[in-house]
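Query structure, 299 tokens:
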């Protein structure tokens, strides 16, 4: 058994399909299947059970998994040790993040980290859902609430704020808004209710608004709807500098407090490379939230 066989085994275990593993490994599915068959023959045991849903680990596969993950950590540590260039970060790192963070914060933060580490490839996956780090969908993920289950390490990155807002052109022609009760006379913009993947995104529970006229599962799309003068909605304060003409409404009554959390797989705590990147990401995110929220004070 060699590391390359274990690498392919881990990819299939995480993707739960030959094609998915092949995409990650840049191999065709047939090659992945042959390599798994060769590994199973060498071990004298079936490692996967094939079903219409894909490839699930067998009892033998379950026993092999922690050993394969331990080998992965050893090889990753050796690679980090040997490939560092004058203390710089290298290789590929993937971050999963909610789209508000990914659209308005991570471009600036990652640009700075990339400039300081030219050999580093940073991938940002912006999806409105929770990432599965056990399946290695990402090396680390940013979330809006602290997870309570799983083999994870969790670090608070930064507090941030959100405000009720509308475009000045909309406010000029719409009925005045002097209290929460006035919101019932306005078109509200927010999340699609059955696609809210985290309770922290249920903003309208705090506004007492009754009817939503426009909705999206994307915070960035909601902000663009508000910028287009379509109605009133909740906007990240750090997004306000990117939305000309959008201004706070009922600032004294409605201002929400939330936090970003950085989530990593527990096994990665021994990775100096990931820890250094997490530190740079955290500091950059805190600085960028502070900078943009300060700029938003003038709006």
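Result returned for the query:
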């Amino acid at each position: 058994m060699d590391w390359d066989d274990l690498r392919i085994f881990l990819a299939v275990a995480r993707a739960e399909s030959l094609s998915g593993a092949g995409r990650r490994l840049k191999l065709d599915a047939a090659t992945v299947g042959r390599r798994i068959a060769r590994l199973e023959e060498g071990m004298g045991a079936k490692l996967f059970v094939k079903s219409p849903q894909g490839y699930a680990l067998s009892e033998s596969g379950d026993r092999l998994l922690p050993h394969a993950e331990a080998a992965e950590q050893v090889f990753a540590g050796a690679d980090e040790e040997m490939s560092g260039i004058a203390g710089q970060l290298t290789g590929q790192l993937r971050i999963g993040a909610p789209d508000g963070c990914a659209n308005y914060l991570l471009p600036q933060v990652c640009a700075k980290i990339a400039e300081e580490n030219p050999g580093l490839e940073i991938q940002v996956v912006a999806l409105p859902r929770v990432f599965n780090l056990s399946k290695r969908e990402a090396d680390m993920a940013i979330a809006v609430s602290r997870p309570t289950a799983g083999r994870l390490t969790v670090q608070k990155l930064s507090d941030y704020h959100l405000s009720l807002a509308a475009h000045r052109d909309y406010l000029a022609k719409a009925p005045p808004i002097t209290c929460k009760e006035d919101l019932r006379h306005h078109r509200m913009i927010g999340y699609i209710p059955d696609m809210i993947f985290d309770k922290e995104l249920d903003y309208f529970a705090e506004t007492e608004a009754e009817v939503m006229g426009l909705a999206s599962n994307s915070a960035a799309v909601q902000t663009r709807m508000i910028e287009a003068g379509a109605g009133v909605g909740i906007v990240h304060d750090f997004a306000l500098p990117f939305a000309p003409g959008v201004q706070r409404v009922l600032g004294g009554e409605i201002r929400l407090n939330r936090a970003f959390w950085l989530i990593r797989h527990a096994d990665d705590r021994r990775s100096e490379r990931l820890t250094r990147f997490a530190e740079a990401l955290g500091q950059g995110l805190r600085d960028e939230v502070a900078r943009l929220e300060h700029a938003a004070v003038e709006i």
